[in-house]
């Protein structure tokens, strides 16, 4: 992660420790892969930007707990623009009929269930159509 996102190292040591402690307090395991991603995401924005993103999710119907869970599952979500978040949520809620809570649940199964099954299905389709 430090090779890919070296700007983390540009933080002053006290600031980096503060960010690390904040991420740990959010429930991230410092030895886990998501901790580094969360560290990068959180350190790449100001407190005002972070609060703006949180407020935006709340306006879209997410609770504080759901926002924290979503950040824990997919930290990079907070780097997504508010415009893109609105468009995705609009599609999933208005066109597909999902509730904001269901979207967080989908995110939790995305990595372990949806993606592998989707890739397996795609592989099966490509083999039967070839």
From TrEMBL:
Keywords: Transcription, Transcription regulation, Transcription termination, Transit peptide
Pfam family, one: mTERF
Source superkingdom: Eukaryota
Biological process annotations from GO: DNA-templated transcription termination
InterPro entries noted in UniProt: MTERF, MTERF_sf
One MF annotation (Gene Ontology) recorded for this entry: nucleic acid binding
Similarity-based family: Belongs to the mTERF family.
Protein name: Mitochondrial transcription termination factor family protein
Organism: Theobroma cacao (Cacao)
